[in-house]
Amino acid sequence: MLGFSISRKSTGIHFAERPVLGNLRFALVDLETTGGQAKQDHIMEAAVRVVGGDVDLEWQSLIDPLCSVPSFIQGLTGISNSMLRGKPRFSDVQETLWSYLDGAILVAHNARFDTGFLRANFARYGRDYQPRVLCTLKLARTLYPDWPKHGLE
User: Fold this and answer.
1) Rounded mean pLDDT of 125-153?
2) CB under 8 Å to 82, separation ≥6 — which residues?
3) Residues whose CB is less than 8 angstroms from the CB of residue 124 and which lie 6 or more positions away in sequence, other chains included
4) Residue 64 carries which DSSP code?
5) For residue 58, what are the contacts with CB-CB under 8 A and spacing of at least 6?
6) What is the Cα Rg of the chain in Å?
7) pLDDT tens across 65-108, in order?
8) 5 Cβ partners below 8 Å, 6+ apart?
9) Which of 8, 16, 83, 131 could be a cystine partner for 106, CB 3.0 to 4.6 Å?
């Protein structure tokens, strides 16, 4: 995306191209969790795509939540207890995940959900996660207020 600055010179108007978003880093995030309460439920999958500046990378991991996944959540996500057995714990991936998210603008559909889980999980390791956020659910509701649904389906 390009922005334009306008300056007057004695010969007329001059347009100078400059990147508007070039130095910003965005982390597109999707989490799967064992439930809907960030303080009591756990992250069981994290997927991140980081773009911006000179960065373009993807990372994802199943995460052992150290608890049983409710059958309702298994049906919703397709992630079973057996799939999580032996996978890294959040304590094992939190440093890597932090390195991708720290300083980036978090982009997620229903970002309040993902941000809440990330904030709660990082807090257990002494990290204060307070990202700038772009919520694609709020964006969809703003851009398309007449649509009956704003989900990802």
Assistant:
1) 88
2) none
3) 90
4) B
5) 47, 48, 49, 50
6) 20
7) 999 999 999 999 999 999 999 999 999 999 999 999 999 999 99
8) 15, 16, 18
9) 131
Beta-carbon neighbour count of residue 73 at 10 Å?
Answer: 20
Residue 65: name the closest of 95, 32, 109, 113 by CA: 32
Q: Are 31 and 120 in contact (CB under 8 A)?
A: no
Grouping H, G, I as helix, E, B as strand and the rest as coil, residue 146 is coil
- What's the N-to-C CA distance of the chain in angstroms? 27
Q: Which two tokens stand for residue 5?
A: 């600055």
Are the CB atoms for 125 and 43 separated by under 8 Å?
no
pTM of the model: 0.82
Phi, then psi, of 91 in degrees rounded to 5: -60, -30
Distance CA 109, CA 147 (A): 16
Dihedral of alpha carbons 122, 128, 97, 140, sign: positive
DSSP characters over 86-100: TSPBHHHHHHHHHHH
Task: Give yes or no for a contact between 115 and 108, defined as CB atoms under 8 angstroms apart.
Answer: yes
